[in-house]
Write the structure tokens for this entry.
Amino acid sequence: MRGLLFAFLAGAFITLQGVANTRISGEIGTWPAAALTQCTGFVAALLIWLMLRDGGLPDLRKVKPLYISGGAWAAIIIFSNVTAIQQVGVTLTISAVLIAQLCITFLIDSLGWFGVPKQKMRLPQFIGIGLMIAGVIILKF
């Protein structure tokens, strides 16, 4: 139950962040908005880490370089999200983002990428993704 609560919070804040970044980008540009967001996110995470003391600096040596690149991916996420919201609106953007997330997680689960245990995908998972795609098509019209 707790995991679902955090997933719900993540989805809500991703949407709020996308809208806020779009407003910021209208004032200063998309890449400066992405840099500003990344910077404020770093400061917030650093302050929370210092308060909670969750892990330590020596642990950073254990992290694989591929996983460290996740921060750089965030810049692309912000840019793409802002650009999409500007061009197609919030609802369609977030719907497409959710479908993309499901498709990639489908690949990660079924192929065992990033050390995730492989899971067999069945017809209900394919139907679920298909229904979401149909929903986005309906939203567009």
Notes: The helical segments are 2-28, 30-52, 65-68, 70-88, 90-111, 123-140. The two ends are 35 Å apart (CA to CA). The longest helix spans residues 2-28. The chain has six helices and no strands.
